[in-house]
Amino acid sequence: MVGLIYGLLFLILALIEIKINILNSFVLFTISAIFLKGAVKSKENYYFVGALIAIIFAVLSLLVLIATADFSYGLFGFFALPYFFILKRRLTAD
Amino acid sequence: MKVALVGNPNVGKTALINALTRGSFIVGNFPGVTVEKKEGKAKINGKEVVFVDLPGIYSFQTKSLDEEITKKYLIEESPDLVINVIDAANLERNLYLTLELADFGIPMIIVLNMIDEAEKKGIQIDEKKLSEILKVPVVKTIASKGVGIDELKKEILNGGLIPKRFGRNLEEKVKIAEEIARKVLKISKQKKDFNEMLDEVFMDKHLGVPIFLSIMWMMFVFTYNVAQPFVDALDLTFSTISEKISGEGWLRNLLGEGVVRGVGSVLVFLPNIAFLFLFLSLLELSGYLPRAVYLADSFMSRFGLSGRSIISLIMGFGCNVPAILSTRSIEDNKIRIATLLVNPFMSCSARLPIYILFVSAFFSRNGSVVMMGIYLIGIFVALISALVFRKTILKGETEFIIELPPYRMPILKDIWILTWNRTKHFLEKAGTIILIMSVILWFITNYPSSEIENSYAGVIGKTVQPLFSPFGWDYGLVLSLVMGFIAKEVVVETIGVMGLNVDEIMTPAQALGFMVFTLLYMPCFATIVAIKTEAGIKWAVFSIIYSFLIAYSMAFMIMEVGSWLV
Predict the structure, then answer these.
(1) CATH at residue B20
(2) How far apart are CA B402 and CA B290, in angstroms?
(3) Which of B187, B212, B247 corresponds to the end of one domain?
(4) Which residues on chain A are in Cβ contact (under 8 Å) with B229?
């Protein structure tokens, strides 16, 4: 359920981002697709990778904002941070 | 005391030698990082020990060049001790080489490296039993974290023991390796394999390619956008220094307009190059890069290349010279030649300043997109060329095998070593060849007349210009291409020394054509020498002619298409 919500969140972000930068939007679509496929297959490893890429993209978006003052909705990828740590603990547990 | 490190590829030999010598050899997370033997010295309890890092090999049965190097070293140099480094998680496969090494009769120590990763997989190894069977000391280590290094040092000082020989031929040795592994291995409950879980997503048949493209896009944003403030700061610094120094008199002119402006025009792109290498290092060390390659498995084998050629192609993003040397690990000679011939199409870091210069001048709004496009064109041309070669002049069967390393959290020290070693190469070139070229360029642009049109540079540029008449490039740009033969960075340097404002002398379509031409046209001098050394003069000449023809036709095509679009 949480994965599905994240999938939809990134889908909305991707749609908003299209007007700003199409390739950033592509990345957000990809993140959304990973979460949604995870929801379809009910597999947490998909959520984990989706969250990982979302966080990396958020860090990059923040760096770009600082360096060039260009905003990207990729910044919202930080929302996936708590979920990432929960999943990491769960997936790497014995 | 001379100690040789021998083992399968990607078992951590280089990490181990770094731990033993506190050295800074480049560590990777894919097979084939070491292609030549490297030496590192250390003092253990006052005794000087020379460690020799040999290329990773699986056996002595095939005829690849790296196996030849290792074999030759063991026979001719006869080291005092061999450290056989074994990936603890793949004991059985590694033991086969151990049994072959025993035949050399050299004292040996076995190192079970990356023991933590084996334990994560629920694998326990009884090292005492292994030691009893093989009659050599066995030490467990985690080289990247320095675990077990002190114990290993003690064993090195003891000098190791001559191992017991097992089996007379390949079949017997394989069987014995299986038996030994069965005796010493204990696999407790199978833990969830985190690597497999990640692979399921990263190599998903629908999501794998979009993930790869997303990561590639992030790499170019990081290289171009994030590095920009540093580039601007360096640009301002060099311009200020150049203006301050320049003045009356040839010496001031040489230093200001020649050396500082020339070297500066290349050095301003240092942040871009360092950022690109940083990102590539993260991808390499994390273990993602070979997976990205594996993704292409279904269509890659159609291009007639092997898994090992792909590693070499990836290395080409850094510098084509070591990438060409890395083809030594390819057993099939025809695949090896095909790989080294297409390698120069992979855009090396020296070409990055050219793209950034033109992208900033013409496509600043979509800079990262254009740069990514240029890199993709390079990959596309390399693969198509490989296909053509393998279907015609280098015909043969292809077996696509690639070993996937485990995912690892990159260690800061390894990231630093990898990034710094590659960036250092760029700085060294700036201090040597680019510096010399800046003096030469200054001379040919100022003599016999200070007017560029009538200088030697003008004469050379105008002489060669008719060859490029379909492109309509200025003679200064043509000269930069000629000079770029020495090293690709010199293209930007020539433009800098000649004071060309590219946005005033060409259209965006011409700029696009120019970038594609510099991507594909003849390899730099060092790369040609590497091709000659590895494949012979015939292939070096072929490479020059082939790449020039490809560059010419592709640039023309791109320029035509570009003129419709831009």
Answers:
(1) 3.40.50.300
(2) 8
(3) B187
(4) 67-68
pTM, entire model: 0.76
- The domain boundary, picked from B187, B217, B236, lies at B187
Which range marks the domain in which residue B32 is found? 2-187
The single-letter DSSP state of residue B43 is E
Alpha-carbon distance B168 to B159, whole Å? 26
The answer to whether the Cβ–Cβ distance between B211 and A43 falls below 8 Å is no
The secondary structure of B157-195 as a DSSP string is: HHT-BPPPP--SSHHHHHHHHHHHHHHHEEE-S----HH
> Is B118 a member of any domain?
yes
Instruction: Report if residue B484 sits inside a domain.
Output: yes
Report CB contact under 8 Å: B226, A60. yes
- Residue B360 token pair: 């900033």
Binding site for GTP: what residues of B are annotated?
7-14, 32-36, 53-56, 113-116
Nearest CA-CA distance, residue A70 and chain B, Å? 9
Residue with tokens 């990561």: B215
The predicted-structure confidence for B290-345, as pLDDT tens digits, reads as follows: 787 677 655 566 778 876 677 778 778 878 887 888 787 677 888 889 999 999 99
Among B214, B224, B230, pick the best mutation site for testing chain A contact (most A Cβ within 10 A): B214
Chain A residue with the nearest C-alpha to that of B230? A67
Residue B192: exposed, middle, or buried by beta-carbon count in 10 A (0-12, 13-18, 19+)? middle
Residues of chain B neighbouring A67 (CB-CB closer than 8 A)? 225-229
Greater confidence, B381 or B364?
Answer: B381
Structure tokens at B534: 């590895």
pLDDT digits (tens, 9 = 90+) for B520-558: 998 888 899 889 988 999 999 999 999 999 999 999 999
Which residues of chain A does B291 touch, with a Cβ-Cβ cutoff of 8 Å? none
Contact A49 B201 (CB under 8 A): yes
Domains in chain B, number: 2
Amino acid at B437: M
Number of A–B residue contacts, CB under 8 Å: 71
Residues of B within the annotated binding site?
7-14, 18-19, 21, 32-36, 53-56, 113-116
CA distance B493 to B212: 33
Locate the domains of chain A by residue range: 1-92
Do B194 and A46 lie within an 8 Å CB cutoff? no
Name which of A26, A37, A91 is nearest B207 (Cβ-Cβ).
Answer: A37
Question: Does a structural domain hold residue B385?
Answer: no
Determine the residue of chain B that is closest to A32 in CA distance: B207
B423 CB-near residues (< 8 Å, 6+ apart): B270, B273, B274, B277
Give the one of B210, B226, B372 whose C-beta lies nearest to A30's C-beta.
Answer: B210
Nearest to B504 by CA among B470, B477, B466, B467: B477
Q: Which residues pair with B379 in a beta bridge?
A: none
Q: Parallel, antiparallel, or unpaired: how do β-strands B81-87 and B2-7 relate?
A: parallel
What is the Cβ-side half-sphere exposure of residue B118, based on CA atoms within 13 angstroms? Answer: 22
For this complex, say whether ipTM is above 0.85: yes
Answer yes or no: are the C-beta atoms of B35 and B329 closer than 8 Å.
yes
**What are the respective helix, strand and coil percentages of chain B, to the nearest 5?**
65, 10, 25
Q: Note whether residue B32 is domain-resident.
A: yes
